[in-house]
Write a structure and sequence with these properties.
Helices cover 36% and strands 14% of the residues.
């Protein structure tokens, strides 16, 4: 019988916000990939994170996907844009410190 690893327990927003290394990593990756309005494609954010920390895994924080981890921090706005029937949505992330008014990305 194989040993099944139990996933890490899901960390709360407060716990995630206290992890300054995580917050710095997420914010710097969003900043590095953002457009002039501050929005960054999640795929590009993930690529930057893995280049900077190859051992990074959202599951270590209790979230199966990076998008869930980013949303759980409550430090970012997340926008899912449909690109057509049958195609996966494109996910964009905005650091809440860059947010000027509520709503969707510019041009939507």
């Amino acid at each position: 019988m194989g040993i099944t690893e139990k996933p890490d327990p899901r960390r709360s927003a407060a716990e995630l916000k206290q992890d300054t290394g995580l917050v710095t990593l997420l914010r710097s990756a969003v900043d590095a990939t953002s457009d002039e309005d501050g929005w960054a494609p999640l795929a590009a954010v993930g690529n930057i994170i893995l280049k900077r920390r190859p051992d990074f895994d959202a599951r270590n924080y209790g979230y199966p996907k990076l998008s869930g981890l980013i949303e759980a921090t409550t430090l970012f706005q997340v926008d899912r844009c449909s690109v057509g029937a049958g195609k996966p949505a494109v996910v964009y992330v905005l650091d809440d410190r860059q947010r000027t008014e509520p709503g969707l990305r510019a041009g939507q």
